[in-house]
Amino acid sequence: MYKLQKIIGISVVTGLLLSGCGQAGDPEIIMPDTPMQPSAAVNGGVAAAAEPAAAAAETPDAGAQETQPAAGSGEAHTVYLITMDLADSYWQSIDKGCKQAADELGNITYKWIGPDTHDDALQSACVDQAVSEGADAILIAANSADGVNASLQKAADAGCKIIYVDSAASFDCVTALATDNEAAGKTAAESMKTALADRGITSGTIGVFGVTQDTASCVARETGFRAAFEGSDFVLADTVYMMDDAANIKNAVTAGQGQGYVAYFGTNEGTSVAAGEAVKESGKDDLVVGFDTSDAMLALIADGTAYATMQQNPERMGHDGMVIAVQALEGTYTDTNTKTDTGVTVITADSM
């Protein structure tokens, strides 16, 4: 079975209803000085659920995706997953994990919805939709720290359990399952340092790419990345933000090549792929380190265009988030504002 790492407590700081909220960043949770232990922990993890299925459904069609409870299940629960969009393969992996857990538990009506673009108002409308359709629990990758709080308050007032996957808002939750993004950023930096040293490069300027200034998970990755280069002879350029337009990153790579940049760091799948594609189109051998493992990013690793990418565990976030949601609904998970770091793995061509 999936085994959650030790869950430790946290303190979360800091219109119109859409018809078929459509389809693609992520705030960080601040850890307290004295974490608490969750009462639902069993042998360092959540109470046992069945082993995840070996295979799952293929990528879903855009729009609401729904799984009905299995025949003969106990009390049915309605659980919604709301992501920043439905198109990104990262969110599709979270959906896959949710479906696996829903199938294992057998008492879940499950639906996945999200906006067409990163937008607080559109995501808030999706939360409102879930509440109006009778959601008992909502797993959400919040678009920003505060922008969806009003709708989350309405959901909580209606009795919904709130579970964050990947990206937390500043509203209280049952638990949050996410990457420790600052630590992951440091890991990315150490990977880049190793690759630069192997090339005999000991100084130079590195390009840094973000999603938006409000995408706190990516900001945390950047914070860790920059911290790891402090005291070195490398200079990290000001962050260029993609803002839902890959051309912003590609133009920045071209500009960086003109100024002799030695490497580029993407803080998520979109920025990493855009940087890699720009380098590939230029025909140059610039170093690229990024995040996430979409087919496009893995192809850039495989052909040598990108050196490394940080593989998160979104499927685990979805699976274990669903399990904890049901435990919270059934009263066996009683803690609030806990967090699980789901970790990263460095993927290079040698490790594929």
Structure in words:
The protein has 352 residues and is an alpha/beta fold. The protein folds into two domains: 196 residues, Rossmann fold; 131 residues, Response regulator (Rossmann fold, 3-Layer(aba) Sandwich). Helices cover 34% and strands 18% of the residues. The protein is built from nine helices and 15 strands. It has an eight-stranded mixed beta sheet with strand order 1-14-7-6-5-3-4-2, with helices on both faces. Strands 8, 9, 10, 11, 12, 13 and 15 form a seven-stranded mixed beta sheet that branches. α1 links the parallel β3 and β4. α6 crosses α7. The longest helix has 18 residues. The chain is elongated, with a radius of gyration of 20 Å.
SSE inventory with pairings:
Elements: E1 8-9, E2 65-67, E3 77-82, H1 89-105, E4 108-113, H2 120-132, E5 137-140, H3 149-157, E6 161-165, E7 175-178, H4 181-198, E8 204-210, H5 216-228, E9 234-236, E10 240-241, H6 246-258, E11 263-266, H7 269-282, E12 287-291, H8 295-302, E13 308-311, H9 314-329, E14 338-341, E15 345-348
Parallel strand pairs: 3-4, 3-5, 5-6, 6-7, 7-14, 8-9, 8-10, 8-11, 11-12, 12-13
Antiparallel strand pairs: 1-14, 2-4, 13-15
Helix pairs in contact: 1-9, 2-3, 4-5, 6-7
Task: Give descriptors for this structure.
9 helices; alpha/beta; 352 residues; Rossmann fold; 8-stranded mixed beta sheet; elongated; 7-stranded mixed beta sheet; disordered N terminus
